[in-house]
# Entry
Amino acid sequence: MPDDALPERVVVPLLEPADGVPAVIDTPAALAAAITAFEAGTGPVAVDAERASGYRYGQRTYLVQLRREGAGTALIDPVALPDLSGLSQALVGVEWVLHAASQDLPGLAEQGMRPSRVFDTELAARLLGMERVGLAAVVADTLGLGLAKEHSAVDWSTRPLPHEWLRYAALDVELLVPVREVLADRLAEAGKAVWAAQEFEAERTAPAAPVRVEPWRRVSGLHAIHDARRLAVVRELWETRDHNARQRDIAPGRVLPDRAIVAAADALPRSVPQLVALAPFAGKGTRRRAALWQAAIDRALALPDAELPSVRGPHTDAPPPIRAWPERDPRAAARLAAARTVVLDTSQTWQTPVENLLQPDLLRRLCWSPPATPDAAAVAAALTAGGARPWQVELLADRLAAALQGVVG
# Structure
């Protein structure tokens, strides 16, 4: 039978946790019992965390799930129990298995939970070149089981949490360790086990994200605003929205959507009636606070020219936008084209996404400001200084040096 005639793998739905849905741990006594159980357990521990993105301000964790052989599954309420450092201490030296660890580790750290070792099933799937890397897709590929994800975007700050949400949360850690075993075998067979270990350690030890300079410039649609006065309106509305959202513990986009900020900056309304005549401000909630938004606009309109934001944005050491390279530095554009060819070819050879072979920003920086003598040693040093892992340097330094030398010199 030809390969394309092979039947698709049958996926069996997983509907209930093996041990049932445990009660939520929300008292010190229950937490102490869980700590004892997990310390006595064996093997890796599966860990997950649920946030209320899109509902609440920030990225606070509202549920922590764990499962370990011999301990079963635990669902912990970090609102009632914000200090989980005792649980973390009980798991020192134990490998934590997470899916998309970089999303959960910062929030877990706020609860005092910091792993000694990490295995990221999503990152492993990426390194293996799997087409779909969501947890349900990876579970289906590795174990042939179907994992429902219908509650992935619910408001996890809800109390009490509905039983069906808790079932979903328990299932999220039910299979992580078995998935990890399959992926670990595949990584070893593909010659990528060392790659994965270095990537997991980089995730585990990653520093906290730096505070953004002028975070209001991330407003969606800002590219349509081209003058300083209108940018000042965007800035003032963003800062007013952020303050209001923080006070009310509501996601900023639910307080005032970005499209409303951009619409106001474009129209420059001079009164509340003019403001609410704009379509994005016609909703009941937005109209209720129209005076607040108009006051922000008025403040921006009254600013002296010397206090207006720069149209170009804050100064950074980042290269200019790639679209400007051919005009500003044609040789840098040529270097980037050659380097991208190297990375793309390597990606295809190893069946690994280009963004996992090398951070795109690091590649741009290398090509915009290459070493004076771009030999293999200098390129390797530049990659290492930029945060590339040893496996990436070993895989790419020689070939990138050859590509740069074909343009420079």
Observations:
- Residues 14 and 146 are 5 Å apart (CA to CA).
